């Protein structure tokens, strides 16, 4: 059964994880958001009870 042979697939998986970990992830973590959520003011929401027809 060739699908049980990890020779080619293990190298492909290892290469893709190393590419993600060493190249792509630092670029994503260095991204700064243009609209950070810290600038938003929290406003309390006013909720009204739902008028259930069977109560």
TrEMBL record:
The keyword Protease does not apply. GO terms for cellular component: mitochondrial membrane; proton-transporting ATP synthase complex. It is a single-pass membrane protein. Pfam families: ATP-synt_8 (PF00895). One of its GO terms (biological process) is proton motive force-driven ATP synthesis. Its main location: mitochondrion. It is found in: Mitochondrion membrane. Keywords: ATP synthesis, CF(0), Hydrogen ion transport, Ion transport, Membrane, Mitochondrion, Transmembrane, Transmembrane helix, Transport. One of its GO terms (molecular function) is proton transmembrane transporter activity. It comes from the Eukaryota. Belongs to the ATPase protein 8 family. PANTHER family: ATP SYNTHASE PROTEIN 8. This is ATP synthase complex subunit 8. The gene is ATP8.
